């Protein structure tokens, strides 16, 4: 079955929540490049500064990786970048993390939130702990943001209104739960590759890391087959405002 395109014609504002600098750039930023070109406002929320990702002293690494993330954002047209200072490598799922993500959702008011996954095991092996914590906390924060009585101090003291998100999307694969895709053939893919190349110092510190232009097009070409296009990025998309499928079937019966 050919996967359908994401309903991006309904997107106005997308918030991408990830754990580290560079997490968006392993293919997903090609979809971001397409969205920003079409007038969709995209914001990034990074939960850490990535200070544990290089052999340099942590503060030096943090400054370097933040600068590289800013450059990567510029490549794909992202102007709204928020970077928190939760500890890299030991990100903890809990109320503090949910509170911070909820705050950014209420500030940015996205109709769509893009998150990392929260499964322990993936097709690539066991997922990194920070990614899992970020994905689960984002899932919960999306619901928190719409409830006036969850983190009410943000409403009462910070004057942030509750906000309900329509779509939650998570990067996926054709054989691993993907439901929709975004074609990125051409310029979006070129900019996506360039956005990962902006993390030059980080990539240089990783032994035997392949060049972005060598592996990202291969990955997007594999995903493109699921949409019957040349290059694509795939997602699992959840319409949070639709009734549960089981409930719909029961009513119809």
Folded structure, characterized:
The protein has 253 residues and is α/β, with parallel strands linked by helices. It has helices at 28-37, 58-76, 95-108, 129-145, 152-156, 187-197, 200-204, 212-227, 245-252, and strands at residues 13-18, 41-46, 80-83, 112-115, 121-122, 125-126, 167-171, 180-183, 232-239. The strands form two sheets. A seven-stranded mixed β-sheet has the order 3-2-1-4-7-9-8, with helices on both faces. A two-stranded antiparallel ribbon has the order 5-6. Strand 5 and strand 6 (125-126) form a beta hairpin. Helix 2 (58-76) packs antiparallel against helix 6. The longest helix has 19 residues, at 58-76. The chain is globular, with a radius of gyration of 18 Å. The two termini are 26 Å apart. The model has no long low-confidence stretch (mean pLDDT 93).
Sum this structure up briefly.
With 253 residues, this protein is α/β, with parallel strands linked by helices.
């Amino acid at each position: 079955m050919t996967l359908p395109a994401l309903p991006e014609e309904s997107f106005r504002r997308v918030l991408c929540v990830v754990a580290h600098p560079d997490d968006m750039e392993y293919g997903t930023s090609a979809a971001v490049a397409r969205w920003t070109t079409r007038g969709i406002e995209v914001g990034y929320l990074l939960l850490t500064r990535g200070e544990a990702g290089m052999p340099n002293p942590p503060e030096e690494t943090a400054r370097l990786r933040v600068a590289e993330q800013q450059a990567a954002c510029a490549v794909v047209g992202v102007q709204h970048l928020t970077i928190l200072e939760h500890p890299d490598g030991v990100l903890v799922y809990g109320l503090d993390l949910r509170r911070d993500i909820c705050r950014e959702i209420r500030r940015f008011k996205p109709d769509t939130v893009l998150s990392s996954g929260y499964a322990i095991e993936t097709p690539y092996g066991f997922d990194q702990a920070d990614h899992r914590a970020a994905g689960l906390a984002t899932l919960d924060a999306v619901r928190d943001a719409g409830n006036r009585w969850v983190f009410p101090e943000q409403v009462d003291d910070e004057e942030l209104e509750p906000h309900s998100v329509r779509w939650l999307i998570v990067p996926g694969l054709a054989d691993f739960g993907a439901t929709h895709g975004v074609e990125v053939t051409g310029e979006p893919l070129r900019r996506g590759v360039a956005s990962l190349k902006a993390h030059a110092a980080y990539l240089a510190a990783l032994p035997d890391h392949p060049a972005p232009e060598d592996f990202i097009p291969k990955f997007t070409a594999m995903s493109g087959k699921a949409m019957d296009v040349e290059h694509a990025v795939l997602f699992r998309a959840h319409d949070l405002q639709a009734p549960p499928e089981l409930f719909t079937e029961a009513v119809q019966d």
